[in-house]
Design goal:
CATH architecture of the largest domain: Orthogonal Bundle
CATH superfamily of the largest domain: Winged helix-like DNA-binding domain superfamily/Winged helix DNA-binding domain
Strand content: 15-25%
Shape: elongated
Distance between the termini: 38 Å
Number of helices: 11
Radius of gyration: 25 Å
Structural class: alpha+beta
CATH topology of the largest domain: Arc Repressor Mutant, subunit A
Number of domains: 2
Strand order of the largest sheet: 5-4-3-8
Order of helices and strands: EEHEEEHHHEEEHHHHHHH
C-alpha cells in the first residue's frame, strides 16, 4: 500500500474473556497510512533454516509448533493474507474438519499472541477478524524468503547475488507439513536460476573456479540439470581437467537413464565429444563407486 492510501484501523473492539484471546474487530474505519508508519513495529522473520523472529535481544525460535509457531510461520510467509479457519485447518490439520479444529486454532492464536506481545513490549501484532487471522495493519512484516522470491522476480545478476546471500538453508528446515511444499518448489526454482545465471556470468568473464563452484552447487541440488552439467564440463575443461569432463558426462548419462530412461540431449553429448576429444570413450560406463545425486529437473 502506497503512502496516503487508506488502511484499515480499529475503531471499537470487544475482548474475549479467555486468557490470551485475540482482539476481535467489530468495526473498521480508514486512517492515514502515514500516521501509522510513524509508530509501526517491524517483525522480521527468518524462514531459511530454522524458524526465528528478531527482537531487540536477537533471534528467538518462537513457541512450540502447535502452540503458535506454525500460525506465525504461516502468516510470516503470507503477510498480506487474511487466514480463514478453513485455510488454517487445511494447512495444520488436513485430516480433520473445520469444526473439529476450532479449539486448536484458538489455542495456536492465543499462544502466538502471548509470545509476540512478550517479545515486542505488549504490541498486539495479530488480529482476529470474524474468526480469521491477520497481522495488525500497523505492523510491518518482512522475511528473508519474501526478499529472496522478490530477487527471483527481478532476475538480474545483482538480484541473483542477493538471493544467494539470503539463502541460508532449506525453507523451514526440518518441518514436514504439506503446506510448505509449494514454497519449497518455488525456492528451489529461484535458487537454480540464480546459480545457473551466476555460473554463466562467471564463465563469460573467464572466472572458471567461481563458475565451477556455482555449477557444482546447481547439479548437487538438481542432479539431472543438463544446463548445469554443461557449465561444469566447460569449467573443468577450462581448468585443464579433461578426465573430470568425461566423468561428469558419464554420471549425468547414467543418472538420466536410471531415473527417466533417456540419454543426455545431443547438445550435451556434442559438448562432451568436443571437450574430451574422443567420441569412442563416451560409451564407457561410469565408475561403480561414484553415485549420482537426486534429480529435480532437466534443462
Amino acid at each position: 500500500m502506497l503512502p496516503g492510501e487508506a488502511s484499515l484501523h480499529l475503531k471499537t473492539r470487544a475482548w474475549e474473556h479467555q486468557r490470551g484471546a485475540l482482539p476481535m474487530i467489530t468495526h473498521l474505519e480508514p486512517v492515514n497510512e502515514v500516521q501509522c508508519a510513524e509508530t509501526r513495529t517491524t517483525l522480521e522473520f527468518r524462514l531459511f533454516g530454522a524458524f526465528a523472529v528478531r527482537s531487540n535481544d536477537g533471534w528467538n525460535s518462537g513457541p512450540a509448533p502447535k502452540k503458535g509457531r506454525e500460525l506465525i510461520e504461516y502468516l510470516a510467509l503470507y503477510p498480506r493474507r487474511l487466514a480463514t479457519q478453513d485455510d488454517l485447518a487445511a494447512a495444520f490439520w488436513p485430516a480433520l474438519d473445520t469444526e473439529a479444529v476450532g479449539h486448536r486454532i484458538h489455542l495456536a492464536a492465543s499462544g502466538a499472541r502471548v509470545f509476540l506481545r512478550a517479545l515486542f513490549g505488549g504490541v498486539d501484532a495479530l488480529q482476529c477478524v470474524n474468526g480469521s487471522y491477520r497481522w495488525n495493519p500497523t505492523v510491518r512484516v518482512v522475511s528473508d524468503v519474501e526478499r529472496f522470491l522478490d530477487c527471483g522476480r527481478r532476475a538480474t545478476v545483482d538480484a541473483f547475488r542477493t538471493a544467494l546471500d539470503l539463502y541460508s538453508g532449506d525453507f523451514l528446515a526440518g518441518e514436514m507439513a504439506e503446506w510448505l511444499q509449494p514454497t519449497r518448489i518455488r525456492v528451489a526454482s529461484v535458487r537454480a536460476c540464480a546459480l545457473e545465471a551466476l555460473a554463466k556470468e562467471s564463465l563469460a568473464h573467464c572466472e572458471y573456479a567461481t563458475a565451477l563452484s556455482f555449477g557444482l552447487d546447481l547439479i548437487e541440488a538438481e542432479r539431472g540439470h543438463e544446463s548445469g552439467a554443461r557449465l561444469v564440463m566447460q569449467c573443468f575443461a577450462a581448468l585443464g581437467l579433461r578426465a573430470r569432463v568425461l566423468e561428469q558426462y558419464l554420471l549425468l548419462k547414467a543418472y538420466l537413464a536410471e531415473q527417466i530412461g533417456v540419454d543426455p540431449t545431443e547438445e550435451t553429448a556434442e559438448l562432451a565429444r568436443r571437450l574430451v576429444g574422443s567420441a569412442a570413450v563416451l560409451g564407457a560406463e561410469p565408475r561403480a563407486d561414484r553415485q549420482p545425486g537426486r534429480v529435480l529437473g532437466r534443462a
